[in-house]
Each structure stands twice: as structure tokens, then as C-alpha cells.
Amino acid sequence: MRARLLGAAVAAVLVTVGTPVPASAAPAARAAAAAPLPCPKAPAPRVTRPPRPVPPPAVPADRTVGGPALDTPGLVTPAGAPAPPAVTATSWLVADLDTGAVLGACGPHEYGTPASVQKLLLAATMMPKLDPNQQVTVTPADLAITPGSSAVGLLPGGRYTVGTIWLGLLLNSGNEAANVLARLGGGTEGVAGGIRAMNEEARHLGARQTHAVTASGLDGQGQFTSAYDLALIARVCFADPLFQRYTLTERTQIPAQPALKKGGFQIQNENQLIYRYPGALGGKTGFTELARHSYVGAAQRNGRRLVVTLLGAEARPVRGWQQGAQLLDWGFALPRDASVGRLVAPGELDRAAEAAPSPAPAAPTPPPPWRGPAATAGQRIADGDWRVILPVAGVAAVLVGGVAALLAARRRPRRRG
After folding, report:
1. What are phi and psi of 125, to 5 degrees?
2. pLDDT class for 16, splitting at 50, 70, 90?
3. pLDDT bracket for residue 412 (50, 70, 90)
4. Which of 24, 41, 91, 116 is catalytic?
5. 215 and 318, same domain (yes or no)
6. Distance CA 344, CA 189 (A)
7. Which of 68, 371, 373, 411 has the largest CB neighbor count within 10 A?
8. Do 307 and 389 reside in the same domain of the chain?
9. Are 264 and 147 in contact (CB under 8 A)?
């Protein structure tokens, strides 16, 4: 009799909750990715710098632009290549300007702060649009730059050709010159329109990790680039004969302004590569306290043109252009067919996105098969749904308690009268 009562109680509980359905097994863990190869680093002095800005979240597709091997925070070089020189830069890349082959890199798609090498994006955007012979007047707003930052010495109210202003930008890294050129190229929107055009050009070139906030490269919140993106931008610049002429100019004269009773003066190219590296094609230096030293340089040797880009370097033990020269030497020593990736062509990523077929609409998910209230409740309990577990546990406790009380009553001896 006791067994029948206990069986009835258990059956009642099982009917209420149903037979639990085992939870699905967790997917197998992925194998840990191989640790990135560390980049050779030269010892650098400790410096005081503002806190590093927080970069935007990584976009996996952006990190593989140019090839999957470039998706690394560490070193990537061709198989069998000698070790590259140790430099202080946090990221760098060496590429062939003509073939687009990437010869080697350190963290090519890691976000970095550009400083004045961002002026190359301004050149890539505006140089094809602006007439170098056009006379323009500098406004007081053009001179709104960070006090103490690099400037050519353009005067408010002064009249200069666009070509002169380009020389002031590329030789002396003039931040006021950047404002003038962005304003001219920005149309009715002025400098803001120029910066918007720079960002549109970066996207067109495939420089998806580049976002300009200032035309000059002076630090701005949310302003980033990468060593790979800088190579894309530099490749476009060095394809322009006007840019090639400007960036190799050693010195030029800023004309006098008779209406302002100011004389002219001479400026010199700050890029030491053009004076000290055989075959130098030019480039651009950059520095802010936040970005530290950035550099882009190019050179030719034996009919081969290479470009080097680097970010986050220190000027000791050697300066940024010297680190670039060392990496150029390393690149020229590699075989002509050496490659770990490539520089995408302008517009290539946009064309690929347009050509990609639209994803088919997802098929509607069929409803789960009907299993009855008992089985459904059992599945919810197996999934840890406390909204079902607590009521069922209460019912089970009442049933089991009732059976126990009944059994206890049957055990008590009956009084005989």
C-alpha cells in the first residue's frame, strides 16, 4: 500500500513537470590563435605624454584589408626574410609604390594618431581640385591653430598662390596653410566641408581606419589612422606629379606682402630624407605630444619605388626619418616578388561591395513541435526558468507532504474501546 501511494505521488509530480529535456551541449571551444610575432623594438626613452585616446572598436573586415596576413598586432614578414631593423615606432609598414605589394609590417591595422602626416590626406583630397596658380587671400580664421604649433607665417589679409600654400604645407608643415586649403576645397562649408571631403576620400581609397577631425593633423577627439591606411594615401600622393615636385623641393620663397608692408622670407624642407638618403622621393614628418613622431617617406632604387609609414615613434636613439630610412633599406634588400599582402586600389572596396549579391531574406523559423504542457514545462525547467520551477516545486512539496502525512496516520495504532 505504501509503495502504491509513493508511486502515485511521484507520478503526479512527473505529470505536472513532464520529462525533463536535456539542455543542448555547449559548442566546442575554438583553438587558441597563435600568439603574434613581436616586432623588433629599439629602446626608447620614457616620455610624458597625454593619455592615449581610446580607439574605436575593431572592425574585423577592416583589419583584413590587403590580405589576412595583415590582421596582426605584431610582425609580419615574407618567409625567409631577414629580421627588420629594431625601431621605436609602435606600428609601421613598407610597400612597393608601383606594384602595391606590402613587403612587411608591424601592426599594420592598429589604430594610431597621425599628427601632421594627415596633411597627406589633405593633399590627396584637394590637390586634384585646386588650381595651383589661383590667388587666394588668407583670413584671420585660417590662423586659428594651436599656439606654438607649426606654421609657415602666412599673414591675415596676405595674398598667395595655392602653389605657395602647398609648399608651406609640405615643407614647413604649416597648420594655417592646411586651414586655407581645406577651406578652399570645402566650398560653401569651408574647413568643415574640407574635412568631410577628406574622410570621403579616405573611404574611397580603402583607408577604412582613418578618420580626420582636423585638416592639419593637430590632435582631435576621434582622429585615427593606421600604418596601412597611410600607405594607401601616400601611394595616391606620389602618383601626382605636382605632389612629387612639391615634396622634393628643398627651399622656397614666401613672397612679400607690399599691401601689408611685410617682406618675404625663405622656408626649407623639414624632411631630412631628401637631403641624406640617395634616391629619396620625399614624404612628410609629424609630431604632437599625443601622437609622438609619425613619418611617411619614399625612395627609389634600381627602378623600384618603396614607401615606408610609421606611427608612435620616439626621436631617440634615432629620429623618425632615420627609422624610415632603415626600414627602406630593409625593404630594398628583399626580392622583388616578396609580399605579405597588397595595397588595395582606390575604389576597389566600394566596387566589391556593390558587386556582392544581396543576402537572401532569411527563411521564417518554423514553430517548435507541439509536445504538450508537461513536456514544455519540463523543457523550461531544464533551461532554468524559475517562473516554472518555483510553482512546480510547490506542487511537488504539497503532494509529497500529503503522502507522508497519510502514511504517518496509517502507522498510528488504533485505540480499542
Report:
1. -85, -45
2. very low
3. low
4. 116
5. yes
6. 30
7. 371
8. no
9. no
| Chain length of the chain | 417
| Burial of 149: CB neighbours in 10 Å, binned 0-12, 13-18, 19+ | middle
Give me the DSSP letters along 290-301. TTEEEEEEEEEE
Both 117 and 174 in one domain: the answer is: yes
What region, left, alpha or beta, does residue 347 occupy, with left being phi > 0 and alpha being psi -120 to 50 degrees?
left
Residues 157/255, Cβ–Cβ less than 8 Å:
no
Q: How far apart are CA 217 and CA 362, in angstroms?
A: 45
* pLDDT at site 99: 98
Number of domains in the chain: 2
CB-based contact 120:298 (threshold 8 Å): no
Q: Is 116 known to be catalytic?
A: yes
Of the candidates 119, 216, 226, 339, the residue annotated as catalytic is 119
Residue 216 shares a structural domain with residue 103: yes
Could you confirm whether 339 is annotated as catalytic?
Answer: no
Mark whether 296 and 397 lie in a shared domain: no
Instruction: Report the C-alpha gap between 117 and 294 in whole angstroms.
Output: 7
CA-wise closest residue to 161 among 143, 183, 134, 185: 134
Catalytic, out of 91, 150, 173, 226: 173
Task: Show the beta-strand stretches assigned E in 158-279.
Answer: 159-161, 251-254, 265-268
Question: 403 falls in which pLDDT band (50, 70, 90)?
Answer: very low
173 as an active site residue: the answer is: yes
Amino acid residing at 295:
Y
Q: Is the pLDDT of residue 31 over 50?
A: no
CA-based end-to-end distance of the chain: 26
Residue with cell 591653430: 145
Determine the Cα–Cα distance for residues 388 and 392; give it in Å rounded to an integer: 6
pTM attached to this predicted model: 0.79
Band of residue 383 on the pLDDT scale cut at 50, 70, 90: low
Position 47 scores a pLDDT of 84
Domain of 286, in residue numbers: 72-354
CA distance 336 to 306: 11
pLDDT, tens digit, for every residue of 78-114? 999 999 999 999 999 999 999 999 999 999 999 999 9
Whether residue 318 is found in the same domain as residue 383: no
CA distance 66 to 97: 14
Q: How crowded is residue 340: how many other Cβ atoms within 10 Å of its Cβ? A: 25
Residues 291 and 382 in one domain: no
